[in-house]
């Protein structure tokens, strides 16, 4: 059994403000939880929450992961873009071509996301968050498939995609060439051991799959002050293993 993808975490200089933006875009409930901090709870089958964590580090370069939001029609796409702009998003240019049919935006803290046109067949059976699109290798797609217990739904030309058996967004990796890593990842996974699982056993399993520990400087073990274990996947992307939930 794989670990649980508990949350996608955003580093933010203004966590509450960024949470309100994404709450407005996605229509998800905003909560301020003593354990999880500022978070959004999904109102659909997404399967993981969004957490917004305070950080003073400035964004450096393009994020390695971003949301692809789907549209049911061109009018629906225009409405999503207009709503995001009204909430504080802005248009950005990352080299996209007009004929690609998607609109590239950045949230109020510069995190990229795309609003995909209605003719995208790859995301046709997905919800509003069609995909969490990642820059990454084929090996890292295999790693996360094993780590989460999500089957591969695409594996071609070094591009991979996985999806929970229960539905929700696809998680995709675009293959080479990979973007250079620019500082700490501002978007990261929080994973939890399986129900009634053991944190150390899960850490050991992830290490056997190709993950590495990150020394956070807290106690020399990779544990932070809350008992979470900092790790990196085979492409060097940070993630944390939480205490059992």
TrEMBL record:
Cited InterPro entries: Glyas_Bleomycin-R_OHBP_Dase, Glyoxalase_6, VOC_core
Gene3D superfamilies attached to this UniProt entry: 2,3-Dihydroxybiphenyl 1,2-Dioxygenase, domain 1 (3.10.180.10)
Source superkingdom: Bacteria
Pfam families (alphabetical): Glyoxalase_6
Domain VOC stretches: 4-118, 125-244
Region of interest (Disordered), residue spans: 215-237
Record protein name field: VOC domain-containing protein
Species whose genome carries this gene: Streptomyces aurantiacus
Organism phylogeny: Bacteria, Bacillati, Actinomycetota, Actinomycetes, Kitasatosporales
């Amino acid at each position: 059994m794989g670990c649980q993808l508990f949350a996608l975490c955003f580093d933010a200089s203004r966590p509450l403000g960024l949470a309100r933006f994404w709450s407005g875009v996605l229509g998800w409930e905003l909560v301020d939880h003593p354990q999880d901090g500022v978070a959004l709870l999904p109102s659909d089958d997404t399967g993981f929450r969004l957490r917004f964590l305070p950080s003073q580090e400035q964004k450096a370069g393009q994020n390695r992961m971003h949301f692809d939001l789907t549209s049911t029609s061109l009018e629906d796409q225009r409405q999503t873009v207009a709503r995001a702009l009204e909430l504080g998003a802005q248009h950005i240019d990352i080299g996209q071509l007009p004929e690609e049919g998607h609109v590239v935006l950045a949230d109020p803290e510069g995190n990229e996301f795309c609003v995909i046109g209605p003719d995208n067949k790859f995301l046709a059976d997905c919800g509003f968050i069609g995909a969490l699109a990642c820059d990454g290798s084929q090996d890292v797609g295999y790693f996360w498939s094993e780590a989460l217990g999500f089957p591969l739904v695409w594996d071609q030309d070094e591009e991979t995609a996985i999806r929970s058996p229960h539905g929700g967004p696809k998680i995709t990796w675009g293959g080479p060439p990979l973007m250079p890593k620019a500082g700490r990842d501002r978007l990261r996974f929080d994973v939890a051991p399986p129900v009634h699982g053991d944190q150390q056993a899960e850490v050991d399993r992830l290490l056997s799959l190709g993950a590495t520990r990150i020394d956070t400087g807290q106690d020399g073990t990779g544990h932070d002050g809350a008992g979470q274990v900092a790790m990196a996947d085979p492409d060097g992307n940070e993630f944390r293993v939480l205490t059992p939930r």
